Amino acid sequence: MIKVNTIKKEYTKWDWQAGKNVPFTEEMTQFILSTPNSTYALAALESGHLCHIYYGRRTDDEDLAYLMRLGENPYTPKVNSRDMGTFMDTTPFEYPVHGTGDYREPAVMIRDGNGATSLDLRYVSYSITDGKPLLSQELEDCTVKVPATYADGSDARTLCITMKEIHTGVEVDLYYTAFESLDAVTRSAVIRNTGDRVDILRALSAAVDFDSCEYDWITLNGSWARERIVERSPLHHGKQSVDSVKGESSHQSNPFVALVSHNADENSGEAYGFNLVYSGNFFAQAEVTQHKRTRVVMGVNPFDFAWALEKGQSFTVPECVMVYSDKGIGEMSRTFHDLYRRHLIRGEYKDKRRPILINNWEATYFNFDEEKLFSIAKQAKELGIEMLVMDDGWFGHRNSDNSSLGDWYVNENKIKGGLKALVDRVNGIGMMFGIWLEPEMISPDSDLYRAHPDWAIQVKGLPLTQSREQYVLDYSRKEVRDCIWSQIKAILDNANIEYIKWDMNRQLTEVASAALPSDRQRELWHRFVLGVYDLQERLCTEYPHILLENCSGGGARFDPGMLFYSPQIWASDDTDAIERLKIQYGTSICYPASAMGAHVSDCPNHTVGRSTPFETRGNVAMVGTFGYELDVTRIPQADRDEIPSQIEKFKKYNPLVRTGDQYRLGNIFEDNTFDAWMFVSKDKSQAVLTYVQVLGRPNYHSRRIKPAGLDPERRYRSSQTGEVHPGSTFMNCGIDVALDGDFKSLVIEFTEV
Ligand code: GLA
Q: Domains along the chain?
């Protein structure tokens, strides 16, 4: 719901010269966006400054002007001409600029034709539309869709505020979408140039000024094989930020931050989550200001970024999703999950169970041929697995990671008889077939590189940095994308491929393009990401039946931008069930379980060397998309025997995991002796609880944990004890779990009776 209210009020302001309070009037237009439980309010002042009024628990008041503190520092030359700076540096702004008195972090910075970077943006007009417009970026030779949440008129309304810069031809459309049934507000912007050339030096997606600094700041950080580790700390004066400068959203930081009240836990307290729908360099910062207020900003990283706008051109600022919860961090997560499942993920698999796959990476690495793959497929089929995924090493002459990226034709020395013959054979026994690709990469040892050395991103005169013995293709160039696309098409048209794992195994260095003029080189970071989006969109449009799973050296591109194309993303190369507790907990902070790539792998685990029970590996992978990553022909017979029942269990609970509400019952970061979580169906008639005991139970005693999300009034039967109690009993009093030994786990079902 969006309300617009223009009011004129009288205020007073102390006038130093007159030595008394003097009256003045202010006419402002307030825009009040409401979701079921939250309100986001902003106002255009008479002067044209666009100010932030409020973000938080819902209020239905139509006049929140008093929150503007206008008597303190008004922009009213009559009474305040001597100190405009105070107004600029203390007022909460919606899209703060640089250079005209606001010394806090700006959202936008643009260099004019004279090289100056000061801006003055003023409100011009607004419009409100049902639903949500699509975002796209026009480039010289094509238009690229920019990923964003989508909604029709029944789900959302969008406010567009147009602003104009005073001394250039720059105009900005700020978009705000309020969702009707979810506490989510999204923001994006389009910057247009109607005058002489300007250069955008930063164009963030959102800035929100909070009136307090009494919050904790939550971020998701890590490294390869340790992605999205939750960190929480109180805000402090100055700036705290997370970002990526690697060309992808990265292992090290995720484009997610939250401000939560100090007392917030899973079930109570306030939480504001910010998530950028973007897969490249991002920046998120909380700045505690002189008056103990907080400015949060998020967007494409301004570091090493610039974008030239000639007359008539425009730049689309990616979307920032903001979620508010006054019922704790758990509720914030569930809102993100619902939003992404309903309004971001697309395609045939959006609401469908994904095929149970077996991937040969940890089974064989590069050492396989068609017979080996077929033997895995055959054994897997007998156990109930539905799809074989052929991972890295099937193309060019690749037998290790040192060659052939860019040569996307099958290596017939390895896959004798060709790809189609293998796929047909696998299909013939009733298994689907999927394939691994790394389309953004080029190996120095490849036909593609020998033919087009300038297609690798590189700086003239500098040696190229190899990483995993590979370079990155210049996806800002359409001819490069077209060439890779025609190779991918040839594979897809030749054989019945039903799944693609799209990998990206290195970060960008020596970032320059042979095709861009010198004054546009800083655009390459963003143009590269747009190029990736262009190809993934082609894949989704031309091959809608293919299930796409994004991946980046494990989980370095687990972001909402990727979810627009792939309903699932490989969460981490660390498949150890115990390490996964942290990785999956962190991922669940804003991403749904339906999107989390998780597999059962062999032991001792290849990354950490730990051995865990096969059952626990299954119970942990079950809260993701589920599959196997092991040589099923060689694992212990006892493990193999367990697979059919594990698959039955997965099939039984997957609808709950995929569509239900997730409750985190343990916190592995605070107590590393156990973890537990629960999925409850939307109608609350059924729930499944998973408990994993990391370290043996204390002194032979059972551990009491408290289920959540059940209906307190309705009665449920616990599969653990067979006992029937009201949901309130289970939730308030808890249940007792007793398992012997480390790494054991248990799944308990609650069914309404
Ligand atoms: C990345 C992926 C792995 C595997 C390898 C293949 O590391 O995350 O799952 O596909 O590449 O090279």
A: 2-343 (2.70.98.60), 357-659 (3.20.20.70), 674-752 (2.60.40.1180)
